[in-house]
Amino acid sequence: MLDPEQTVLAFVDAWNRMDFDHVHALMAEDIFYHNMPYAPMIGRAAARAFLDSWSVEAVEWTILNIATNGTVVLTERIDRFLRSEGELSIPVMGAFEVENGLITRWRDYFDPGASKKYTPRAEGGGWSRR
Amino acid sequence: MLDPEQTVLAFVDAWNRMDFDHVHALMAEDIFYHNMPYAPMIGRAAARAFLDSWSVEAVEWTILNIATNGTVVLTERIDRFLRSEGELSIPVMGAFEVENGLITRWRDYFDPGASKKYTPRAEGGGWSRR
ipTM, 2 decimals? Predict the structure, then answer.
């Protein structure tokens, strides 16, 4: 079984591979998922419905810093997404609580304005994992 | 000399005591201070001018989670402030980089909308450190 930090690293890796089945397999059935500027969601099905509604062509999350304290894993990241509207680059910090290799709580903190600031897509543009 | 996590705990404690001289003494002279939704500031004097301009009657920061990885300390907090406009309660995550007992880099991630959502002041209201 993965330890809490390994679980979060696997979660980020699954995002970067756009392996969304694996993304959701790493969430506990009753996950509490809170994009802090918005209302929280409860349950893997609700998280999946929300994330599926947010279509992406490419994903690149970069972990700037990660630190773990027991079952709590704190991350500082830049989450990049390529969408039909253009490219997004969102500075974010996320707190994950992990039990038995599954994420039970996930809270992301960011400026919601950053998730609306599209820049034109640059062909090639560093999407190593497109 | 305080280690990185002790330095951040002392910093939060200084905020809660409203000992702003000590708050600023824990910053490196050339601190890079970035409230992520806004432009970054460089230098203790710039940070102090910014923070002094933001008047508060009471402060209560609560650390929900803290985790340290070498010189990097990541925090998840609720920062409460009592101001003339009312009370603010801001969910925030902050990344601190610490060298020789001084904060060299400080990045706070939050929804800037939360710093404008005042609620009426409740007399007494849990301001233990007023």
Answer: 0.95
